[in-house]
């Protein structure tokens, strides 16, 4: 049987790479896109070691013309796409007083973290619902938001705003795609050890040790990737539009 295909944005490192590998382990061939080439060789080798094929495409997802071209490439290369993981994302240009947030940082977060996954998903979903779309395995759309979809961080207000916005985008797609048999999931990572958090490692080492989350350790990219792959491959079939917290309990209100 021909393997189903997953498309992962932001695929060359971190959560993106871990998602690619986990999906390959679950029987998917994987297509990745990202801004640069650095890291794609390692992602490809890991996917192939897990039993999947891998191909990649350069794409700035904030450029919607580039998104159109990327999705056309992804759909055409191996005869369609069954699963999409919207992982590409950025943080605030600088943490600090929200009274000092720049227009550039605001626009960057909303363009990449919210607008891009909406239009990538719209482009893929239109093809999924068209006559003749492939069905070689489970289909799903996944949006990677953040614990900040629930928990406000005033020192990076633009990031928090973009993540609660994309969480609502996931819910809207869930309503539309349910009639097509395509579940939609919102993944909310907590403090995950990636390049994005490298600059604040010491800060979070201390906060985790002090009990920031009930599970007192860093989250790893594989924690998120494995959760995504489990959902995509049908581990929780009677669910759509739900937010799954991969955060060691960070999101829970505590007294």
TrEMBL record:
Q: Which UniProt keywords apply?
A: Oxidoreductase
Q: Do the record's keywords include Translocase?
A: no
Which Pfam family, giving just one, matches this sequence? adh_short_C2
Q: What is this protein called?
A: 3-ketoacyl-ACP reductase
Return the InterPro entries for the record: Sc_DH/Rdtase_CS, SDR_fam
